[in-house]
């Protein structure tokens, strides 16, 4: 179909009326083609015309949106376009395909938009939900018309959800099915018999909507909870779902569904008259709706599909499309996402407001809030008096003037909720949000207010929940302005799962749970250390502030020290306590870095870290802070291996700080580890076990857990007497969501490179590596790779294939480098992230080895390329420490030259750096520039 025809149709429309009139405008070109063509050719021509009109209409809506247009306007225009197109298709079918000159009463047909389409708003990739409404049962003519309309829509590649029912059938099914009831709640007339549609609405109001509203409200809120759990329980996940996620469009839809059902309103503006919203809250609802629709429409157009998730790879493009710019230390993508999370928070506030109004109307059971508090219940104190009351078993305000009369009451409200073990009434939270102006410099300086806040932070009851309520109402950001700067701030990386403020609250919650014994999976890690910390308020505040300076131009650890030094005196901390909090903020990443990227069996590593820790009290606090920090990054990030590394670093440093004495010294721990393995290998003779234990160095005994030691023992036993010992084994590591691949082979300098190459050639992503050598010259290497399949059987088959490929490579049956190159040619996936590569060559970190630390953008096959380059440089890798922080890889290699000595020549160090930087250069491009000098020729002591 000539594109000029579809374009001319739109040119004749009144711009002020959007796409209204398109149906009538199409009558002439449809009549012309039907006159010119017959049979199948006529249908093809009609579909081509409708397709070109649909494409032109969508293109015009997209152009208006991308010219800084409104998201709601775009959604409404697309809905209008769909209405008019369906009308034109209907006219074509009943006029030229199945004409009915004198339709009977039973052949009346009404087309109704339902569900999301029924709201009169349609996203570019959304489904079209239609109800073909009949007066009685289906007739042959009506069935043919409906089928013809659907076939045209399907030929246009539209996703159509449809049903054909009579009014009576609609009533019967909506009474039994809450989903159908919801779709009918938003039904909208498109064309056909208006009387039939009115009959549907009247019947719905009389027979369904007047039934107990509590049932509908409870069902919709339960449905919301299920949906939120499926999409991610937090509204602060860094890759949110715009439609289904917490704080997304579906939450606004749910609020309006409930309001329509309970208050019988048909427009959000009527909620003001109904007393649900104030005018300001209605404006907030409209702003949230506009923003989320604008994001959703842009997202669908940008991806070319019904994509609802703001994934990392699309966030930069979305930020650009929406006009954000770099500013104030934040990139435009971080500014865009911060705006998104602030809107999600506002949606949460609106949800609480509607729920409070429903309770007043007795349309919703108040117990809906109780589920948040059950794990934290304790014996309640006496009921609050004076400015506060208990309403439906929740803390509320006695009158509207409570916070103006005494602004300290804002902080006291949250303190009382925690102190009495009671949830906060939505009315009280609403009153807080309307009184935020009362939180000024005078209140921030008030001793009582600061005392109450510190008690909340140090509470052993509901710390995380209360702090989150303070944050969601805006109190936390006003009372501590530096916290306000990081509210809803995301970090554009794959490592952190949550926004910065949510991460801090989860970290504090983790510490509170550890103290209360509510985290059995990590309890043993800190059980002996946490109770011995003398000053817990220093630890809590250090944890609360450790990331508070994120998003600034300077290093957040350094800038955070200034924040700590300013805030601590306000909270009544002594100068000594203030400096310790500042020290914790400065070094909150240090212990994790040492544990994961340094050789903990090297004495220089331990002495260097001990010099930073300085005292046992600081070591204890930093250890617990690190555990909580890593755990709060995201589910499963604090795995068994990281926990063991932190534990070993703590033990080793404890010995140094204790002057060589420790509650559990190194020799004792090695002895305990040997005893544990001896007990696990009870069927071995003493002679056999004694010979076996001599094969391992102390580092092995300290770093490997008992289950793995048992597996290794059996593997090594099976190799006894082998001329060329080689063995592989695979295990599922469910705690880490990874696959464990163990290789035992004669040690040589290219071994790790071959293993890494085998993984790369097989498409396996390496997330960690444990490298050990036995005293009789065997390498015992364990590689951890990401899972690729949901089912264990599939994953184990894949892992065994990878292990077999590595075995073939070690036997010389395949050439690893060729297989890796072939894989790379097939899989050059783009990434949304850029990480400047850096190489540091350091001789001060070990008495025996040169440490090469390499960081840069992680990718498939990176470890192979790095280890291959190191082997080509004639360096021997004694140990490797593989770490990934989302998209950033940080790998440390302890190396010597082939004579077993350090690399001291500046020229040789520069060559190493140059070769490793070239690993990060895309094929055919020059090597990337390094960050800083990257080479440290520090003599070993």
From TrEMBL:
Assigned keywords, A-Z: Hydrolase, Magnesium, Multifunctional enzyme, Nucleotidyltransferase, Transferase
Entry-linked Gene3D superfamilies: 3.30.70.260, Beta Polymerase, domain 2, cca-adding enzyme, domain 2
Record bears the keyword Cell inner membrane: no
Enzyme Commission identifier(s): 2.7.7.59, 3.1.4.-
Any one GO BP annotation for this protein: regulation of nitrogen utilization
Catalyzed reaction equations: [protein-PII]-L-tyrosine + UTP = [protein-PII]-uridylyl-L-tyrosine + diphosphate; [protein-PII]-uridylyl-L-tyrosine + H2O = [protein-PII]-L-tyrosine + UMP + H(+)
Notes on how activity is controlled: Uridylyltransferase (UTase) activity is inhibited by glutamine, while glutamine activates uridylyl-removing (UR) activity.
Domain notes: Has four distinct domains: an N-terminal nucleotidyltransferase (NT) domain responsible for UTase activity, a central HD domain that encodes UR activity, and two C-terminal ACT domains that seem to have a role in glutamine sensing.
Family: Belongs to the GlnD family.
UniProt name for this protein: Bifunctional uridylyltransferase/uridylyl-removing enzyme
Organism: Methylocystis parvus
Lineage, uppermost ranks: Bacteria, Pseudomonadati, Pseudomonadota, Alphaproteobacteria, Hyphomicrobiales
């Amino acid at each position: 179909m000539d594109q000029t025809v579809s374009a001319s149709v739109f040119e004749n429309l009144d711009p002020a009326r959007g796409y209204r009139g398109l149906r009538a405008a199409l009558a002439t070109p449809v009549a012309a083609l039907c006159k010119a063509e017959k049979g199948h050719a006529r249908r093809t021509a009609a579909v081509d015309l409708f397709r070109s009109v649909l494409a032109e209409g969508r293109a015009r809506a997209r152009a208006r949106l991308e010219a800084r247009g409104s998201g709601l306007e775009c959604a409404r225009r697309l809905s209008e376009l769909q209405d008019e197109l369906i009308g034109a298709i209907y006219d074509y079918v009943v006029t030229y395909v199945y004409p009915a000159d004198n339709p009977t009463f039973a052949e009346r047909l009404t087309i109704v938009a339902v569900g999301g389409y029924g709201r009169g708003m349609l996203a570019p990739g959304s489904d079209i939900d239609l109800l073909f409404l009949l007066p009685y049962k289906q007739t042959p003519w009506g069935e043919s018309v409906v089928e013809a309309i659907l076939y045209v829509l399907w030929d246009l590649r539209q996703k159509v959800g449809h049903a054909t029912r009579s009014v009576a059938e609609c009533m019967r099914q909506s009474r039994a099915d809450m989903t159908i009831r919801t779709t009918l709640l938003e039904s909208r007339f498109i064309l056909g018999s208006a009387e039939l549609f009115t009959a549907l609405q009247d019947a719905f109001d009389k027979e369904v909507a007047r039934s107990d509203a509590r049932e509908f409200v409870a069902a919709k809120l339960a449905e919301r909870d299920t949906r939120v759990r499926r999409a991610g329980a937090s509204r602060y996940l860094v890759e949110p779902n715009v439609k289904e996620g917490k704080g997304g469009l579906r939450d606004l839809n749910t609020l309006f569904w409930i309001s329509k059902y309970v208050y019988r309103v048909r427009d959000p503006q009527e909620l003001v008259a109904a007393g649900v919203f104030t005018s300001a809250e209605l404006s907030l609802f409209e702003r949230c709706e506009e923003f989320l629709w604008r994001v959703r429409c842009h997202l669908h157009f940008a991806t070319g599909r019904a994509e609802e998730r703001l994934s990392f790879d699309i966030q930069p493009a979305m930020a650009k499309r929406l006009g954000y710019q770099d500013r104030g230390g934040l990139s435009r993508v971080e500014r865009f996402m911060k705006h998104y999370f602030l809107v999600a928070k506002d949606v949460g506030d609106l949800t609480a407001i509607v729920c409070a109004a429903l309770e007043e109307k007795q349309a919703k059971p108040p117990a809906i809030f109780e589920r948040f508090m059950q794990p934290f219940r304790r014996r309640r104190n006496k009921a609050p008096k004076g400015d506060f009351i208990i309403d439906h078993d929740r803390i509320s305000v006695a009158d509207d003037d409570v916070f103006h009369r005494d602004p300290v009451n804002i902080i006291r409200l949250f303190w009382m909720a925690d102190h009495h073990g009671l949830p906060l009434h939505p009315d009280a939270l609403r009153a807080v949000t309307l009184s935020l102006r009362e939180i000024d410099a005078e209140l921030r300086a008030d001793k009582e207010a600061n005392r109450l806040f510190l008690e909340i932070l140090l509470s052993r009851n509901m710390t995380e929940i209360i702090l989150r309520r303070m944050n969601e109402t805006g109190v936390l950001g006003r009372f501590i302005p530096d916290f306000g700067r990081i509210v809803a701030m995301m970090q554009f990386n794959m490592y952190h799962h949550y926004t910065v403020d949510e991460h801090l609250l989860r970290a504090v919650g983790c510490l509170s749970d550890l103290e209360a014994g509510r985290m059995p999976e990590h309890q043993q890690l800190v059980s002996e250390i946490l109770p011995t910390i003398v000053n817990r308020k220093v630890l809590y505040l250090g944890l609360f502030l450790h990331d508070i300076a994120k998003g600034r131009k300077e290093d957040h650890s350094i800038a955070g020290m200034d924040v700590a030094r300013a805030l601590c005196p306000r909270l009544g901390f002594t100068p000594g306590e203030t400096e310790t909090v500042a020290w914790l903020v400065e070094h909150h990443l240090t212990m994790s870095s040492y544990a994961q990227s340094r050789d903990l069996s090297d004495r220089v590593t331990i002495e260097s870290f001990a010099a930073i820790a300085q005292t046992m009290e600081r070591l204890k606090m930093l250890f617990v802070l690190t555990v909580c920090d890593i755990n709060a990054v995201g589910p499963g990030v604090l795995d068994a291996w990281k926990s063991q590394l932190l534990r070993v670093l703590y033990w080793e440093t404890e010995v140094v700080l204790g002057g060589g004495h420790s509650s559990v010294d190194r020799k004792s721990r090695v002895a305990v580890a040997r005893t544990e393995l001896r007990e696990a290998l009870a069927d071995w003779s003493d002679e056999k076990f004694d010979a076996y234990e001599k094969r391992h160095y102390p580092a092995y005994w300290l770093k490997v857990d008992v289950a793995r030691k048992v597996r290794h023992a059996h593997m090594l036993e099976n190799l006894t007497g082998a001329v060329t010992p080689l063995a592989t084994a695979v295990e599922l590591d469910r705690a880490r969501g990874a696959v464990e691949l163990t290789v035992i082979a004669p040690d040589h300098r290219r071994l790790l490179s071959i293993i890494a190459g085998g993984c790369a050639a097989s498409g396996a992503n390496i997330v960690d590596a444990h490298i050990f050598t036995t005293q009789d010259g065997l390498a015992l290497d364990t590689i951890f790779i990401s899972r690729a399949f949901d089912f264990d059987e599939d994953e184990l088959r894949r892992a065994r294939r990878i292990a077999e490929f590595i075995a073939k490579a070690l036997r010389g049956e395949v050439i690893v480098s060729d297989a890796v190159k072939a894989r790379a040619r097939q899989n050059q996936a783009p990434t949304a992230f850029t990480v400047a590569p850096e190489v540091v060559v350091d001789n001060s970190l070990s008495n025996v080895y040169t440490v090469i630390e390499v960081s840069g953008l992680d990718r498939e096959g990176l470890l192979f390329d790095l280890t291959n380059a190191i082997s080509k440089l004639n360096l021997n890798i004694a140990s490797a420490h593989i770490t990934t922080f989302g998209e950033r890889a940080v790998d440390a290699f302890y190396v010597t030259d082939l004579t077993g000595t350090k690399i001291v020549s500046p020229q040789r160090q520069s060559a190493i750096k140059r070769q490793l930087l070239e690993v990060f250069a895309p094929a055919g491009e020059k090597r990337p520039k390094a960050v800083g000098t990257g080479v440290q020729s520090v003599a070993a002591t």
